[in-house]
Backbone:
C-alpha cells in the first residue's frame, strides 16, 4: 500500500531523514519507534505532504506522492493525526468533526459522524461542547475522529498516547485496534514502545534519521537492544 524509498528530508542544512526506506502493507498496523529527535514526526509530515523530500520517493497504492499537495493526499486516502492533537480549540466537537470532512462532497457525512460517535461515545455526549474544554484524552479521541471523517484507507498516528494517564492510553490503543479491524491501515509513531509493539504486526526503529532495525513486532520486543533503549530494561 505504502512504499517509501531512499527518503532524504532536510530542515535547511540539517539532514533530518538520511535515506530511509520502509513499507506498509494493506490492513497492517506498522509502528515506527524512536527517541525524541529521531525523525518520526518528520517522516509523517513528509508522508502527508507537509514537508517536501530532497531525494527519494513515496508511493501510495502505486502512485507517487511527490509534489502532491497535502489536501490532495487526503483525497487519495491518507489522513494524519498530528502530535499534540491540533484540534480547533474554539470550535465545538461537531464542528471539528465536520472540518475533518472538508474535502468531501457526498451526503454521508452525518452517517460517518455517527460512526465516529459509535467508536467514541464520550464525544457524542459532548458533541456541542467547545473542544478546548475537553480533557486530554477526549481531545485525542476528537483528533482521531476528525481524521476518520475523511474516510482514510491509511491513518498516520503521531504519538497518540502522549500526556495521557495509563488507563486512557489503554483505551486509545484498544480504539486503534478497533479502527484497524474495520479496514483502516495504520502507521503508528509512538514512544510507548511496549504498547505500540503489543498491537503492531511489524515495526521499524528510527535513530537519528536512519532505520537500523526492523522486523516483526514480537521479534523487536524481544531484541535486547530495543528492550534496553525503548522498554526501560537495564543491561
Residues:
Amino acid at each position: 500500500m505504502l512504499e517509501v524509498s531512499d527518503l532524504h528530508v532536510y530542515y535547511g542544512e540539517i539532514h533530518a531523514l538520511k535515506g530511509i526506506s520502509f513499507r506498509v502493507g494493506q490492513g497492517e498496523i506498522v509502528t515506527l519507534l524512536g527517541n525524541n529527535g529521531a525523525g518520526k514526526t518528520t517522516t509523517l509530515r513528509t508522508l502527508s505532504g507537509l514537508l517536501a523530500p530532497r531525494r527519494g520517493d513515496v508511493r501510495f497504492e502505486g502512485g507517487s506522492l511527490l509534489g502532491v499537495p497535502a489536501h490532495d493526499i487526503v483525497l487519495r486516502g491518507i489522513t494524519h493525526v498530528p502530535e499534540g492533537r491540533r484540534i480547533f480549540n474554539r470550535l465545538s466537537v461537531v464542528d471539528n468533526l465536520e472540518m475533518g470532512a472538508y474535502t468531501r462532497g457526498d451526503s454521508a457525512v452525518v452517517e460517518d459522524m455517527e460512526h465516529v460517535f459509535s467508536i467514541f461515545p464520550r464525544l457524542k455526549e459532548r458533541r456541542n461542547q467547545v473542544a478546548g474544554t475537553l480533557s486530554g484524552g477526549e481531545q485525542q479521541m476528537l483528533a482521531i475522529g476528525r481524521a476518520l471523517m475523511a474516510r482514510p484507507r491509511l491513518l498516520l498516528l503521531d504519538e497518540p498516547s502522549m500526556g495521557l494517564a495509563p488507563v486512557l492510553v489503554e483505551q486509545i490503543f484498544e480504539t486503534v485496534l478497533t479502527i484497524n479491524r474495520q479496514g483502516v491501515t495504520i502507521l503508528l509513531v509512538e514512544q510507548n514502545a511496549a504498547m505500540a509493539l503489543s498491537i503492531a504486526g511489524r515495526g521499524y526503529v528510527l535513530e537519528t534519521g536512519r532505520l537500523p532495525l526492523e522486523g516483526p513486532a514480537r521479534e523487536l520486543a524481544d531484541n535486547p537492544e530495543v528492550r534496553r533503549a525503548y522498554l526501560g530494561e537495564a543491561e
